[in-house]
Amino acid sequence: MAGLLVSQPAHADTQQLGPTDETITTTIVFGVRHEEQLKRYIQETVTPGSPHYRDFLSLREFVTHYAPSPGQLRVTQRYLESYGLKVDKVFKDHLAMTVSGPSSAFELVLQTQMDNYKEDDVRHHPHRRHHFHRPRHQPHMPRLLLDNDVIAVVGLSNEYQFRPMHASKAHITHADALQLVPGSNTIATGVPGQYTVADVANLYNINPMYAEGTTGSGVTLGIATYADFLKDDAYAYWNLIGLPGKADRITKIHVDGGGDFGADAGSGETSLDVEQAGGLAPYADMIVYDAPNGSQGGIDMFYQIVSDNRVDTLSYSWGLPEIFYYPELNGGVDYTNTMKALNQAFMEAAVQGITLFTASGDSGAYDTNRSLPAPYFTTPLTVDWPASSPYMTAAGGTTEPVSLTGRCGSGTYPIDVQGERAWSWGYLADFYQTCYGLSPIEAGVFSEGGGGGVSVYWHRPWYQYGIAGVRRSEPGQSMTELDVNPTVDYLDLRAGYAGRNVPDISMNADPFTGYLVYSSADGGLLQGYGGTSFVAPQLNGVAALVNQRNGGRIGLLAPQLYQMLRRYGYGPDSPFHDITDGDNWYWEGVPGYDQATGVGTPDVARLAVLLSTHNGHGHHGHGGHHHGH
């Protein structure tokens, strides 16, 4: 999430332009008080039978128990002002403040040097800005800030931008040689590649909820994104598919001035997030938060969301490989505190009962390959951030049944996906090898697939202990640049680490069995789109339905999924379908939990019944909108 990527000052393509002399803005994040107590409390809110089950906190209660004291904030503010810095805003949850001033003042406080850079070769760095600034070496946190529990200063670098997690078949070699065979074997009524939210409802048994009158009414769902969009796109999509829904239900909140608009900015991502989440919960209210694309934008956006405490559920379909925060990949500057700072916002969401979903990634088991593609770099087994946060529910991807035919010389080559399976385009590998003599890398199909694997940073959370199939990190994984002589080994990843396993749950994400999107920025109605960035907002819409049925917030979903897996397995009462076929280029779909699809795919109607059988108590009612103001 920090603005960063493998720093290669030796490379001719990254030019150092000298010291930064501009005004910069950062966000200073404080550590929560009583962190262990907060973690225990969150665990109790999602554990049936616990005295605090679904007893979520209001913003005021959170601030009272877990935020730094007003004294800490005052002392920190006076200290920063003494260096000529200005505190522009203190977030209502008291965990963060935005601070602006000349770069020279930040250099004095943090004992570092801020430099400007120019990047010419985006082959190596497709997600890096062309012009950016970053610290020359690790900033040094002064004693006074440490004593007042400042854990991160975010925004010193604006180098790196997040990537949206959607995929299409556009970049595959000879994509036009692959045709859909009509009448593919699936319970969806639409055409693969042109699926709508109605097909999602058929595939995952959502229709019984609509039949009983559950449509998201009274619930507010949120979207967090880095690109602005046109509200009319969402209404156009819902009208096009004949979906009845609440009128004028979308509110936009621009954080730090908001994100950019346009195809390159990712406006299509925001449109699809709104269309999918709001389409599955057609009477829910929606708030779309957008912020500038970068580490500070992300921090400010999530601290704004939890400080507002207005959304009941939320999805986010952007990310970066978690190892991109490591000092070895950033010229010695450690950005892992940026992850910690964001993770705290997710913890606050959890204790307030907001259910968060994020896309697990679209680069299969090899998350870095989207940003640092083979064959220029090695492809170690890596997972995406923030999917690897223990306080996020990570959405993985599957392929629905589909039949394709490939042009092969003067004949054709049949490609048949029989049952729902873990998504990767490995099922196209034989076709490309046989018909075109191309490897998966040459064909452009490697490593497209649902993100998954084992974090090498975040420890295995309590809810994944004792789950068969949960793994430790694999040995022999390193990040090496191969197209230089001699090659450069930047980082050897931790082996045998008991890390957070990703994803938690999956749904259809393959562009070949993908979806329609309406995005003016990208030219209107598009088809053949997929990626785990569809699954996160779809689950968001599902959670909004469950919220309504439950009469209040349900909190962090991931632990509740694993409790159900322990209790029901995949038996007749299970809310899950086990996905035991396919792979994500490394991890295979096997019986039980796996790193390709998590616990499998949901039976939403059954899941909803199980999630709304136990009501919380105490503050149960204040999961609604009057709470936290």
UniProtKB/TrEMBL annotation:
Keywords: Calcium, Hydrolase, Metal-binding, Protease, Serine protease, Zymogen. Its cofactor is Ca(2+). This is S8 family serine peptidase. It comes from the Bacteria. One of its GO terms (biological process) is proteolysis. PROSITE patterns: SEDOLISIN. GO terms for molecular function: metal ion binding; serine-type endopeptidase activity; tripeptidyl-peptidase activity. Residues 194-614 form the Peptidase S53 domain. The active site is at E269 (charge relay system), D273 (charge relay system), S533 (charge relay system).
